[in-house]
């Protein structure tokens, strides 16, 4: 009976040692996992901060480009009004020159192309008639 209890005690001690070793190993694995998770969290936070900084820079660049675009749109509109005014002036000028031409010889058309014809000669102005430049 003493031998049975001694064997049982030894068996319990052996099982206790194995369980303590398993607990120690689990604690070490848990600590390693926790350390790894903290490291990954720090990396993610750093990446998030960098992404925020990059986005702020991109937003600033976008705003600068949009300001430039707005300025260019205004400039384009200004030049468009100037061109339309110049085209109107040219149409009026060609119209007064062509008023002496008989209607049987041709007429004056304003818009994309302004021209009039006389026998053997053509008077033309406008972008398509002059290759992009207005003639007088």
UniProtKB/TrEMBL annotation:
Q: What residue spans carry the Low complexity bias annotation? A: 124-136
- Keyword Amino-acid biosynthesis included in the entry's annotation: no
Q: Which InterPro entries match?
A: IF_conserved, IF_rod_dom
- Where does the IF rod domain lie? 1-90
What does the record list as coiled-coil region(s)?
2-68
User: What are the UniProt keywords, alphabetically?
Assistant: Coiled coil, Intermediate filament, Keratin
Spell out the protein name for this chain.
Keratin, type II cuticular 87
Q: What is the lineage of its organism?
A: Eukaryota, Metazoa, Chordata, Craniata, Vertebrata
């Amino acid at each position: 009976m003493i031998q049975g209890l001694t064997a049982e005690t030894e068996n319990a001690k052996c099982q206790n040692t194995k369980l303590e070793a398993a607990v120690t190993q689990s604690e070490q694995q848990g600590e390693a996992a926790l350390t790894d998770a903290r490291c990954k969290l720090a990396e993610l936070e750093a990446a998030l901060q960098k992404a925020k900084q990059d986005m702020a820079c991109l937003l600033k660049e976008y705003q600068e480009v949009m300001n430039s675009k707005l300025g260019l749109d205004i400039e384009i509109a200004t030049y468009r009004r100037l061109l339309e005014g110049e085209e109107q002036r040219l149409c009026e000028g060609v119209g007064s020159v062509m008023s002496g031409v008989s209607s049987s010889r041709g007429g004056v058309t304003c818009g994309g192309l302004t021209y009039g014809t006389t026998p053997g000669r053509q008077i033309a102005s406008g972008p398509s008639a002059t290759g992009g430049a207005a003639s007088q």
